[in-house]
Amino acid sequence: MKFVIAQMQHETNTFSPVPTTWEAFGGKGGPALGRAAYEATKGTRVPMAAFLDLAEAQGAEIVTPLAAWANPSGPVDGRAYDRFCEMIADAVSNGCDAVFLDLHGAMVVAERTDDGEGTLLEKLREIAPRTPIAVSLDLHANVTDRMVRNCDAIAGYKTYPHVDGYEAGQLAGSIVLGALHGKVKPVMAWGNVPLLAQTLRQNTDESPMKDCVDAARAAEKSGLLAATAFGGFQMADIHDAGLSVVTVADGDKRQAEDACKTILDIAWRHKEQFIYRGEPLEQAIARAKRAADETGGPILLLDHADNCASGANQDTMYVLKEALRQGLTGIAVGPVRDPEAVGKMIEAGVGASVTLKVGGKMDMPAIKLKGEPLELSGVVRAITDGEYTITGPQFQGMRCYMGRTAVLDTGAAEIVVTERNQEPWDRGVFTSAGIDPSRKRFLLLKSRMYFRPVFAPIAKGMVFCDSLGVGSSDWTLFDFRKLRRPIYPLDEFPGGHR
Ligand SMILES: [Zn+2]
């Protein structure tokens, strides 16, 4: 037996000014191809690793054309996407018994398609109409009819923060292997509700997302091959953005459809809870200040609108500006991406006093905002290569590359400034730059979910600080044009009927 196994993952924020080139895929220097794709994923917790394990247990010949993963950002470069598709399509054209794809489900490609995954799957179906295809998807997938029509089994993550990529791969892969051996006949059902659920409200440990995931698990327990509730990714101006459900039954289409409907009904009943309601920034900072006075800190200042894991710039300065205005001290900020400021601090050297403009170098035309740098004076406290290995619970052992990194110490704040985007998903973003986050009064993190397993345990409180950015949960900032309407909460649904 011969299997084609590949990964192509990108969550596209169509409002993001951050470019997504070929080089953006992969830790350093682009995606992994051929044998390198195997090496990059084997033994990790990503879905592709599960596909590899399943294939090896079968003694199958394995072809791995591609492992490509990029941070969320703007639409993917069309030529990079063409090459990805070509490599996977060529491998399938050469003949195989099954295809296993580790996809995201929210990839938008500039000048090509709003449905990167569906378009790829359609092409593969054309090449190999009878070859079974297994697909794993991220919980934030914006599922389309084209995706579902052109593969045999879909299973998605059931956790956010995502810690079960491997299990999703195992589930989708096992179903297709079962089909290959004639043991099961997977049939899928899918559907969506007109609901733009916010990622901030998709924590799978809390209601309402937990209710949807519990219902999916219950459906699997009662005999379905797979059931996934997808929260969807909302900073995407495409027709199908939003919450959806995919179920896989063994031969019984009706059973799949019933389970799908049950889970969608639960989501719709909880629609108000899927919406985040914040407070003005000034008020949030004042509240954080009081919390630090009472507890000594650290208090987390969560600048979720500038979260790079949602495709944001990671360089806006609104929250720090307001914190300094209100006289907060003992702040560690990190990371802020600003290659220009890093260069200037390296030139000045460790110990040098500098005055420079930090952050705000990137305009955000899709939300009609100009970048606003913050002029700061301070001492260059450290310069590093920005590399560290994750010690925290998520992505443990992974090597991370922030690019060249410098710390600016203004007295009130120590700011970790980096060349590359990096979610504060590990204390390494601070410790690698010589800062002990547990000893600060405030930690300003451009994060909405991944900070939790790492920073919540050392924090005395957390405050969501609403600022401006392409990762905002304030829908009034975004001009949705392609999104299907009506959709909640942008439109009213009198009587709650959809
Ligand atoms: Zn996700």
Relevant terms:
13 helices, alpha/beta, seven-stranded mixed β-sheet, eight-stranded mixed β-sheet, binds zinc ion, 498 residues
Notes on the protein architecture:
The protein has helices at residues 35-41, 47-57, 78-93, 116-127, 145-149, 165-180, 209-221, 253-269, 281-295, 318-325, 339-348, 428-431, 452-455; strands at residues 2-9, 32-33, 61-63, 66-69, 98-103, 133-137, 153-156, 186-192, 226-230, 244-250, 299-302, 331-337, 353-358, 374-384, 387-389, 399-401, 405-409, 413-418, 442-445, 461-464. Helices cover 28% and strands 21% of the residues. The chain is globular and about 70 Å long. With 498 residues, it is an alpha/beta fold. The mean pLDDT is 96. Strand 5, helix 4 (116-127) and strand 6 form a beta-alpha-beta unit. It is built from 13 helices and 20 strands. An 8-stranded mixed β-sheet has the order 13-14-17-18-12-19-11-20. Strands 1, 2, 3, 4, 5, 6 and 7 form a 7-stranded mixed β-sheet that branches. Strands 8-10-9 form a 3-stranded antiparallel β-sheet, sandwiched between helices. Helix 2 runs parallel beside helix 6, helix 3 runs parallel beside helix 4 (116-127) and helix 7 runs antiparallel to helix 8. The protein binds zinc ion.
